Fold these 2 entries.
Entry 1:
Amino acid sequence: MATDYTKQPKETITMMIKLVRIGKDAELRSANGKPVLSLSVVYDVGYGANKKSQWLN
């Protein structure tokens, strides 16, 4: 069965693809019996003297 990607979706999903660095080791834990992975990554914004690091946890 083929998927028709030409139709307008009911909701719009925005995807951002960035080059990131791993900030620290990932932490795998269990919440109500379901595995949950916590991960910290950092990416750079700007260029040259205006470059800043942004963290995502």
Note: The CA atoms of residues 16 and 43 lie 12 Å apart.
Entry 2:
Amino acid sequence: NIIEQIFGILQHRFDILLPAPEYDLSIQVRIPTALCAIHNFICTHNPDEWD
């Protein structure tokens, strides 16, 4: 499943997804989208960062 693969990539690169959430639900729903944007930005502008 592509969604599971995406979350696997994000969990590997961003530790914020590993512990139990400490944020309100209104913040939690925004975190995956923000992390995808950061991931894509880094891959575009500095592709060697996470090789």
Note: Residues 1 and 20 are 23 Å apart (CA to CA).
